[in-house]
Design a protein that fits this description.
With 152 residues, the chain is mostly beta strands. The protein has a domain of 106 residues. Helices cover 0% and strands 41% of the residues. The protein is built from no helices and 22 strands. Strands 1-4-8-12-16-20 form a six-stranded parallel beta sheet, with no helix packed on it. Strands 2-5-9-13-17-21 form a six-stranded parallel beta sheet, with no helix packed on it.
């Protein structure tokens, strides 16, 4: 069996920008990126990676990123992260296919898949102006807004 490794690990204050991170296989956290809370991923594509938590990304701050085609047991796209102007689509997980336990600002989360049927959710999930499709089972329609986030 091939070894599984996270594509990129970011320490406090580290930044990665302008890359496509693919085919990672984090044993536990973050197939594409695993970061401490202040690690910054900007203008990147995170794709085709897998992990126990956060197939695309685990923790850190993501700005202007696309997360697609990732998989995990929890949070197929992302887990415990902060996203600004990101798109999370086409990811899968056993629990919460797109975004798990994260804060989103002006981001799009759509058509992610999970066994529990959720596109987003989990502990501390906090969407700020965002578009979520399909809408959560408990809601009748998705929350869609065009209000810009000031100062970010």
């Amino acid at each position: 069996m091939a070894a599984r490794h996270t594509v990129c690990y970011l320490e406090a204050g580290a930044i990665i920008s302008g890359f496509t991170l693919r085919n990672g296989g984090g044993v536990w956290d973050g197939g594409g990126v695993a970061a401490v809370a202040s690690g910054l991923v900007t203008n990147c594509v995170l794709t085709a990676s897998s992990a126990e938590r956060g197939g695309g990304a685990f923790r850190g701050v993501l700005r202007n990123c696309v997360l697609t085609g990732n998989s995990a047991e929890y949070g197929g796209g992302v887990y415990w992260s902060t996203l600004y102007n990101c798109t999370v689509t086409g990811n899968s997980a056993e629990h919460v296919g797109g975004v798990h336990g994260s804060t989103l600002y002006n981001s799009i989360v759509y058509f992610n898949h999970s066994l529990d049927g959720s596109n987003w959710g989990g502990y501390n999930y906090s969407p700020r102006p965002a578009c979520n499709t399909p809408a959560p089972r408990r809601c009748r329609r998705a929350w869609v807004t065009v209000t810009p986030i000031r100062g970010s």
